[in-house]
Amino acid sequence: MSDNNNSLTTEDVRKVADLAMLNLTDEQVEQYTPQLGSILSLVAEMDSVDIEGYEPTHHPHGLVNVYRDDVIEAADVTESVMASAPDTENNQYKVPPALGEEQ
Amino acid sequence: MSEVNFASVIETTAAVAKGDVSATEATQQALKKIEQDDAKINAFNTVASDSALAQAAAVDEKIASGQPVGPLAGLPIAVKDVICTEGIETTCSSNILRGWVPPYDATVVEKLKAADAIIVGKTNCDEFAMGSSNESSAFGPVLNPRDLSRVPGGSSGGAAAAVASGMVAASLGTDTGGSVRQPASFCGVVGLKPTYGGVSRYGLIAYASSFDTVGVIGNSVADAALLHDTLAGQDVRDSTSLPGARESVSDAVEASQDLKGLKVGVIKELNGSGLAGFEPEVVDRFRASVDTVVAAGADVEEISIPAIEATLGAYYMLVPSEASSNLARFDGVRYGHRASGGNTAEMMRATRTEGFGAEVQRRIMLGTYALSAGYYDAYYAKASRLRAKLIADFAAIYSEYDVLMCPTSPCVAFELGAKEDPLSMYLVDIATIPANLVGAPAISVPFGTGAADMPVGIQMIGPKFGEGTICRVAKAIEEAKND
Prior knowledge:
The complex is a heterodimer of chains A (103) and B (483).
Chain A: H1 10-19, H2 26-43, H3 78-82, E1 88-89, E2 92-93
Antiparallel strand pairs in A: 1-2
Helix pairs in contact in A: 1-2
Chain B: H1 9-18, H2 23-41, E1 44-47, H3 49-64, E2 76-80, H4 107-114, E3 118-123, H5 157-164, E4 170-174, H6 181-187, E5 190-193, E6 214-218, H7 221-231, H8 249-255, E7 263-267, H9 280-295, E8 299-303, H10 311-326, H11 344-355, H12 358-371, H13 377-398, E9 403-407, H14 422-427, H15 433-438, E10 442-449, E11 455-461, H16 467-482
Parallel strand pairs in B: 2-3, 2-4, 7-8, 7-9
Antiparallel strand pairs in B: 1-3, 4-6, 5-6, 5-10, 9-11, 10-11
Helix pairs in contact in B: 2-3, 7-8, 8-16, 9-16, 10-12, 10-13
């Protein structure tokens, strides 16, 4: 991948789409490449701010660990949760074969 | 039966409480209005007539038998379609979830029901709340009730349009980068985004977990305060929700006589004299709103937060990163759409390709890129450090000021199709995203009109749990508008 934000290549986009499990047509790759490149150019704006001494944050108010009492609660939800799935068998999710083509 | 004034939450609930109108009649009126008007506005993805009428009948029964009812008894309310409602289809305005019926209610929906409000339907929005115009919805765009050639804003476009057109007096939206405030501004209604962690996210389908909040939309500051109070509180089912008691925002608004003693900072970078792109009419209305705040007794000064210039860059690294992670769960296995054919991986790829629209795909790819090997430090880590700096900058300013002000949006509602380039759409969020980066509460209140006679919203941003203070200032602006 290129280090220059604005020169994001079609190959970069194909690779990212593959990581994100998306199938793009050649037309979509052509369309997305300059769009994503221009969005990445926004990121260069961050260089104008001195962030020396600041640690990364992941909760705006610094909340870290939250505990609740270790009490077992009834959760008879299997049927309603499984009802959302496209395909199930014996309360398990059913998917096509992991290898090869579906028979 | 008497007509319900759907312009007000407080009047609707008072009419039901006095027996002037039953909950069933109020609900029937809302459903009728939706049936008449929504064909042209497209604010609703789903109208839940049967369950709404059943809920209303139960509220009427409570009233008839002399049982106490909740503070929102008989109020027809709309819920943005990214919030789970048991038994009512919830789609995130995406083809990947079309047809999905959640087996549970979000905590905020539970709280609405406990307050005896009536859920009349699910409102249209940008797909997975990603957008600023409602044009990325798989259910088609929502049109601005003030001018049907224009967008209602986004992502909670349907929620704002449903209130602005009088179909309901109130709605729930969500705000990750301005998605409650900006459509409220574009449609001329009030939108309140709470402190991050102030309202439970349980049952809100995650987009960017460290930014997402559930906000409220209504026609007045008092209505927004009442709705917010109904939702606020820590939730053991949301580990990011904040501990501590919530003060009544309604009481703060009601008790407020003037703004004497309040220190207000006007954000220089966002008042038209800093960053470019603010429409002159918006700046004019903003200046007039500052005058009313001064007239109400507040001490107003201009302040500067230079790091705001880099907030779009940080935001559009962090939010897509969180989104790419959150949306990895949509793979055709546990819920929603499944594409046919192929092996497991091929099925998952085809499902995601068919199910997600272009804007969602862009943000997933952007986030995947930012988090990928070799890029993490330059993009994600840098952005989260910049976020830490911005939080520190705001904290320093809040040690001297009670509330900050700027326009909600640099522009008024634009025409459909006007911003086809994604970057130009992102720039619209410049004034709303700082509050999301720092987790601050913020409100947009309408104050007259700008270009093309479209509404202009004024934004107040407060410190953590400063909802009462921002609502007091918003109320002063609202009252000045009505003079």
